[in-house]
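Quick log. Single chain, no ligands specified.
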Amino acid sequence: MARTEPRQVTGRMVLAMMVAFFAVIIGVNGFMAHEALSTFRGVDADSAYRAGQLFEQEVAMAKAQDAEHWQVDAKVMPSGDGTAFLDVVAHDASGAPLSGMTATAVFARPTDRHLDRTININEDRPGHYQGAAIVAAGQWDLILELSRQGDRLFRSKNRVVIK
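-> predicted structure:
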């Protein structure tokens, strides 16, 4: 067999390797930055100024809600087909059922508002509300609101895990 001489490293080869190395690094960084910006905009509130203005109103509503001493219990019961059933029981401070209320619930994904699911809840008997929605497994924020004639009287936000 004939012996081949080892290849000599030239200045052009070193330059080509350095250019290729940095081209790969810049290409990967560009791709990762594009994916990060296209999947999550980084915006939590559409208008931070408006959210700040509404804060005092939210604090006053929370104090009024606490003064009512209502007992509102919500149970989330997942089924095997991806449907989550929501069962809400609401009583006032004396234990009387809260009837005639409009109940709304939202399963909000903590990481992406685009995945939020609104549930239609109906009152089936005084103080007892039920609804169902198709919800994927994982962590969700359950936002429950009770209102009467357009005035929100109760709001809660709780983290739930659906398996």
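Strands lie at 71-78, 83-91, 102-108, 117-125, 128-134, 138-148, 151-162.
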